[in-house]
């Protein structure tokens, strides 16, 4: 993908705080104009990685390249990076227009150029007529757009966003997510976005880097991460999952023969590439891939939640293990019913356990 931003290249980038390794050596390439999300729980290393790219701290090792420049030791103000924070970090004593113009004035652009670019970006953000408004008079969604306008108006090589929608209520958050995606498709800036919200990542991203324990566990498209997770952590963090303990007896031709206590059976499943024979692993079955069939494993429906066209059932297998299944709504089936459960061919997948922090 090509866009108005520049490519980002990280090689061996790491950060230690004493004996604590907040970010393990990391290689990452982001294409010009790409929207990449760093997704993970608190403490996974995603904000540490973002801050190193921004220049808010020195890496312990490694390099950062933006376009053809090595910016590893450059001060933040010399990297031509736009930054949007969760709390927006707007200047309360300045108007909307003054906030947006701040970065341009620091760069000593002519007043006519400043006025032109501020008016242009406010129009793009649907904030026409807001230039003289005090930021305290704005809604949360409007303040978020002002912060984004301030970051974009300097025409950054890379745009960084650190959970910028975290302060918005759910309804407004969904609206702004769609607005951000549409805006990115128009302006094409290389964007690194940090969130712990998987739904937000799925809506916004060209690719997602799932992080945990200071490292990128898997990097790929939404489809890659959902359909072919590399380990149990990614499988559990992207989408809803049934993850059952399994013991892998043998592996061949992209499949594994594994004993699954929940089914009291040894069966053949599709397998992630890194699954090894004679290892403990996890069996992944997505709720929408479970089906009720004439033959299969007996189970009892213990809870039913209607979701409109779909219904979510909680099931208890005869072994005592529980599963969640999502089916087209059929009101003749509900709690207490006995069913047989199976899955669509090759949708059940053996994945390795999540690597340890070491």
Notes on the structure:
- It is a single chain.
- By secondary structure, the chain is of the alpha+beta class.
- The protein is 23% helix and 38% strand.
- The chain has eight helices and 19 strands.
- The strands form four sheets. Strands 6-7-8-3-9-10 form a six-stranded mixed beta sheet, with helices on both faces. A five-stranded mixed β-barrel has the order 11-12-13-19-14. Strands 2-1-4-5 form a four-stranded antiparallel beta sheet, covered by helices on one side.
- A hairpin with a 2-residue loop joins strand 11 and strand 12.
- Helix 2 packs across helix 3, helix 2 runs parallel beside helix 4 and helix 3 packs across helix 4.
- The longest helix is centred in the middle third of the chain and has 18 residues.
- The chain is globular and about 75 Å long.
- The model has no long low-confidence stretch (mean pLDDT 91).
First-last Cα distance: 35 Å
Instruction: Tell me the number of helical segments per DSSP (H or I, 4 or more residues long).
Output: 8
Structural class: alpha+beta
Q: What amount of the residues lies in strands?
A: 35-45%
The string of secondary-structure elements, in order, is EEEHEEEHHHEHEHEEHHEEEEEEEEE
**DSSP, total strands:** 19
Low-confidence spans: none
Molecular shape? globular
In quaternary terms, these chains amount to single chain
As a whole number of angstroms, the C-alpha radius of gyration is 24 Å
Biggest sheet layout = 6 strands, mixed
Helical residue percent? 10-25%
How are the strands of the largest sheet arranged? 6-7-8-3-9-10
């Amino acid at each position: 993908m090509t866009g108005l931003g520049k490519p980002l290249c990280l090689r061996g980038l790491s950060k230690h705080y004493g004996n604590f390794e907040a970010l393990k050596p990391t290689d990452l390439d982001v294409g010009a104009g790409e929207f990449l999300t760093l997704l993970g729980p608190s403490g996974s290393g995603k904000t540490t990685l973002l801050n190193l790219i921004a220049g808010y701290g020195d890496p312990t090792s490694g390099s950062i390249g933006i376009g053809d420049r090595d910016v590893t030791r450059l001060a933040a103000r010399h990297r031509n990076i736009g930054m949007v924070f969760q709390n927006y970090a707007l200047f309360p004593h300045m108007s909307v227009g003054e906030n947006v113009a701040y970065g341009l004035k620091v760069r000593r652009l002519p007043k006519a150029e400043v006025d032109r670019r501020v008016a242009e970006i406010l129009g793009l953000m649907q904030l026409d007529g807001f230039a003289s408004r005090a930021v305290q008079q704005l809604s949360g969604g409007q303040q978020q757009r002002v912060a984004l306008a301030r970051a974009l108006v300097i025409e950054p090589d890379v745009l960084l966003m650190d959970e910028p929608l975290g302060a918005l209520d759910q309804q407004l958050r969904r609206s702004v997510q769609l607005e951000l995606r549409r805006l990115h498709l128009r302006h094409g800036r290389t964007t690194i976005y940090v969130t712990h919200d998987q739904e937000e990542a799925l809506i916004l991203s060209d690719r997602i880097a799932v992080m945990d324990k200071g490292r990128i566990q898997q990097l790929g498209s939404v489809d890659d991460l959902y359909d072919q997770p590399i380990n149990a952590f990614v499988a559990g963090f992207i989408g809803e999952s049934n993850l059952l303990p399994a013991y892998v007896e043998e592996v061949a031709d992209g499949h594994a023969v594994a004993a699954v206590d929940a089914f009291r059976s040894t069966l053949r499943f599709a397998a992630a590439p890194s699954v090894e024979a004679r290892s403990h692993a996890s069996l992944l079955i997505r709720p929408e891939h479970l089906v009720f069939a004439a033959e299969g494993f007996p189970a009892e429906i213990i809870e039913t939640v209607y979701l409109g066209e779909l219904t979510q059932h909680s099931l208890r297998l005869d072994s005592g293990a529980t599963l969640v299944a999502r089916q087209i709504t059929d009101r003749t089936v509900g709690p207490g019913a006995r069913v047989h459960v199976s899955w669509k061919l090759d949708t059940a997948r053996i994945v390795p356990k999540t690597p340890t922090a070491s």
